[in-house]
Design goal:
α8 crosses α12. The strands form three sheets. The chain has a seven-stranded parallel beta sheet, sandwiched between helices. Strands 12-11-10-13-14-15 form a six-stranded parallel beta sheet, sandwiched between helices. The chain has two domains: 193 residues, Glycogen Phosphorylase B (Rossmann fold, 3-Layer(aba) Sandwich), CATH 3.40.50; 182 residues, Glycogen Phosphorylase B (Rossmann fold, 3-Layer(aba) Sandwich). The chain is built from 14 helices and 15 strands. By secondary structure, the chain is α/β, with parallel strands linked by helices. It is globular and about 65 Å long. The relative contact order is 0.12.
Length: 385
């Protein structure tokens, strides 16, 4: 029986805690066999992977000094050395790779010396921030255009992200939409009913960073509690804004109603999702240009039957249908978001129907197995002569 073709996966750090979606995608391959090349191996217990299907090729010792000189002084993107490109190319040939899949767009730029000599077709996938951060700088945009010219295919997690890539210079004929895959069995649906006592529980799970719109969520929640004083809000995740958000909750007078439990295990996360009534995710473009694709945590919440209150940002409207599976408002619109929460609370029957519609949207458009088959089809397309 002929062995499955090898799809080499390049992920600079395999894997950061927030990269669960990448792990699911790689381990979900069936018709293609993954082989991972990385610079650093992290979170091995959380993300186990066969040692014989992984190669760690560390950064050279001079990387730190080069980063300061090239990025901060010369203000150009950092590219790997030719010697690094040769090592990676040799490893691809050694494992009989048929395609190379590079995560993420900024890493595709970093690997330009490899792309210029790669022995197999290259696919570069963009996930959100990698199409915005630094892309206002001419040197980065020039490097991105070269990367687009060398790649066989370019993947975007949302149509909105794909449109941004076209503006950056991606040839339309190379662009493909590949959605995040959600394992439905890990986030089972349960019918939702509005709380009879008015004790609404809101939930948001994300990194505590600017693009997640957390100050807007807190301010909207504070407005909502004026008429619904028994309501609570849990913000799960870790990040640099924790102290600022804790202070804001106190300033708004809702510190006793808001919890920040940090990063949650899967069991704890599913318990929180089961106890919640609405998922909040008012994303916004960050000060560095950072923007969402389609938030994974939002899709997981929708899979369990949670309606969404979010923003018309990035790929969110491609998953959340206004008035059907949730409500969408403008970025940074705390008043509009509070009004959306009031609408959910005012219509118990519609609220329950929205939860069912949210789960249906994920089942039909973001199911993990289906998206894995899409990705395998893209590998087959790229590998054709």
């Amino acid at each position: 029986m002929e062995a499955s073709p090898v799809a080499v996966q390049y992920c600079a750090t395999f894997l950061k805690p927030e990269m669960l979606h990448i792990y699911r995608q790689i381990t979900g391959l069936r018709a293609w066999r993954p082989f991972v090349i990385c610079q650093k191996r992290e979170e091995a217990e959380r993300f186990p992977f066969p040692p014989d299907a992984l190669a760690v090729l560390p950064k050279p010792a001079t990387h730190g000094l080069r980063r300061i000189w090239v990025k901060q002084i010369c203000r150009r993107p950092i590219l790997i050395y030719q010697s690094e490109a040769r090592r990676i190319a040799a490893k691809i040939e050694e494992v009989h790779g048929r395609v190379l899949h590079v995560y993420f767009g900024n890493i595709g730029v970093h690997l330009l010396p490899l792309l210029r000599r790669c022995p197999v077709p290259v696919i570069v996938s963009f996930h959100g921030a990698d199409a915005g951060v630094d892309m206002d700088r001419p040197a980065w945009r020039e490097a991105a255009r070269e990367m687009f010219s060398l790649a066989k295919l370019v993947l975007a997690r949302s149509k909105a992200l794909g449109e941004r890539l076209l503006v950056l210079g991606c040839p339309p004929e190379k662009l493909r939409i590949h959605r995040t895959g959600i394992p439905l069995e890990r986030f089972p649906f349960r019918p939702r009913t509005a709380p009879a006592d008015g004790a609404w529980h809101f939930f948001q799970a994300c990194r505590l960073i600017p693009k997640k719109g957390l100050p807007t969520a807190l301010r909207a929640f504070a407005r909502f509690t004026a008429a619904h004083p028994l309501s609570t809000f849990t913000v799960a995740g870790e990040g640099p804004l924790l102290q600022e958000l804790t202070a804001l909750a106190a300033e708004l007078g809702v510190a006793d109603k808001v919890r920040f439990p940090g990063f949650l295990s899967h069991a704890a996360l599913t318990a929180e999702l089961a106890a919640a009534h609405v998922f909040l995710h008012p994303s916004e473009i960050g000060p560095d240009g950072n923007q969402e694709g389609v938030p994974n945590a939002m899709l997981e919440a929708m899979s369990t039957g949670l309606p969404v209150a979010a923003t018309r940002h990035g790929g969110i409207p491609e998953a959340v249908e206004e008035g059907v599976s949730g409500y969408l408002v403008a970025e940074r619109d705390e008043t509009g978001l509070a009004e959306a929460l009031e609408k959910l609370a005012a219509e118990p029957a519609r609220y329950a129907a929205m939860g069912a519609a949210a789960a249906k949207a994920v089942t039909e458009g973001f199911e993990a197995g289906m998206q894995a088959r899409v990705l395998e089809g893209l590998y087959t397309e790229a590998a054709r002569p």
